[in-house]
Amino acid sequence: MKSKIITINNYNDYNKFLKRINIYKGILYYNTLFEVKNNINERNIDYITNALNMKNRKKRIEYVYDQSCKLIDWKNKGINICGFENGKCWVQRKIKNGKCNGCCRKCIYQTSNGCSTKNLSCKLFNCTEVRSRYNVIRYNDLILLKLLSKKNQIIIKSDYFSKREDVLKDLYSYSFIYSTFRIVYRLIRNYITVNKIIKK
């Protein structure tokens, strides 16, 4: 494998590097190991370099997915951003609708201890109440997601209420139609299951 050394001394260099990610992740650089000299201590550079040096497509997708989840978890660590008290979020307490578990009430993976899986789409979703109270991570803040294909970027924005393993299968698939069918099927199955639980 050949190596490519990139030096980033300022944010102008950093922005140029980000603009070239689509080229660096392509076939022209498949046999290239990147060494990026990060002289501005920008944490994203190290994550991107690690991902670019993963030449196995599935491993790269999994790394981008898991690392993005970790970045959100680190940002929200120790903060009750949904304002849960007695199982009710800010909005549910404000409108007094008698519902519990916030947006997660519609998901089969909710538990009394929180989410039993790791869903990036759900982690990126925050209602207007939360966004007005906290500076939360949004989709465009996760620079790592630039390493995903356009199809996979769309999936990350819409694959709610699914377990990590199912989302990764959707991302691994080359067919957008197949992934969309899987997502719609799970949403319908989830809706039916949750309604059955509520009626009991």
Summarize the structure.
The protein has 10 helices and 4 strands, in the order E-H-H-E-H-H-H-E-E-H-H-H-H-H. It is mainly alpha-helical and 200 residues long.
Would you give an account of this structure?
The chain is mostly helical and 200 residues long. The chain is built from ten helices and four strands. It is 50% helix and 9% strand. A hairpin with a 2-residue loop joins β3 and β4.
What does the secondary structure layout of this molecule look like, with pairings?
Layout: E1 2-8, H1 11-19, H2 21-24, E2 32-38, H3 43-52, H4 57-76, H5 90-95, E3 110-111, E4 114-115, H6 120-124, H7 128-133, H8 150-156, H9 164-172, H10 176-199
Parallel strand pairs: 1-2
Antiparallel strand pairs: 3-4
Helix pairs in contact: 8-9, 9-10
Identify the notable features of this structure and list them briefly.
single chain, 200 residues, mainly alpha, two-stranded antiparallel sheet, globular
